[in-house]
Write a structure and sequence with these properties.
Helices cover about 45% and strands about 10% of the residues. By secondary structure, it is an alpha+beta fold. The protein has six helices and seven strands, in the order E-H-E-E-H-H-H-E-E-H-E-E-H. It binds zinc ion (ZN). The site of zinc ion has 8 residues, from loops.
């Protein structure tokens, strides 16, 4: 993500809900979708961090905040910080390290959301806060429980450099690389093929052989 996103008004929110194969089981799917939330610009496949308005739209579409509920920018920024820290945790887990700064931020966010344990017939971890902090607090609770049962470890970032989707890795050895083989997997195949061809034409040019037309490139290049 080397370029800077343009104005938020020019962006299109995307959560990749269409990648059914990458979805997580049960309530963890909400966390996965939240972590995948990003923006695109018109005519640009590159993914950018979500604008506060994208976060607000996502929370509303999921019924996590009311249709008329007023949401302040500080709360949305807070939600974006939580998204960032949870993503950092996903990244750290994937490379076998810990991210203390991210974990510390999440500890604080959990306290700010007023997460409380409830014992009884239906034990739960519930936020005391309402609004955005309560909604994101509920996602923190799900993430925490998923850390305990190990399912959080299956959340992975897509390996495509221009894709910010987090997917649920169902492979036995947790070695899946793409949020979607049909989209990012194939796109990467096409990219590698073109790089190899470029490399080949460069070496042909270097030894004085004319350019030849390339046939048989993998097809179906899709969006992220
Ligand atoms: Zn992807």
């Amino acid at each position: 993500m080397a370029t800077t996103p343009g104005p938020a008004s020019a962006r299109i929110p995307s959560g990749h809900e269409d990648s059914v194969g990458s979805q997580a089981p049960g309530p963890l799917e909400s966390v996965r979708s939240f972590l995948s939330l990003h923006d695109h610009e018109v005519g640009n496949d590159e993914s950018f961090p979500p604008a506060p308005a994208t976060v607000e739209g996502w929370l509303r579409s999921r019924g996590l905040i009311g249709p008329e509920e007023r949401v302040g920018e500080p709360d949305l920024e807070w939600a974006l910080n939580v998204q960032n820290a949870l993503r950092a945790l996903v990244h750290a887990t994937a490379i076998g390290t810990t991210d203390r700064a991210a974990a510390g931020l999440l500890d604080e966010a959990a306290a700010e959301a007023g997460l409380r344990l409830r014992f009884g017939e239906a034990p739960s971890v519930r936020p005391q806060a309402d609004g955005v902090r309560g909604a994101v607090g509920a996602l923190l609770a799900v993430s925490f429980l998923a850390e305990l049962d190990g399912s959080f470890r299956r959340l992975r970032e897509c390996c495509a450099p221009d894709c910010t989707t987090v997917f649920f890795d169902r492979s036995r050895n947790r070695t899946a690389k793409w949020c979607s083989m049909a989209a990012c997997g194939n796109r990467s195949k096409v990219r590698r093929f073109r790089e190899r061809e470029r490399e080949r034409s460069r070496s042909r040019a270097a030894i004085g052989v004319g350019e030849t037309t390339v046939h048989g490139a993998p097809s179906g290049e899709g969006r992220s």
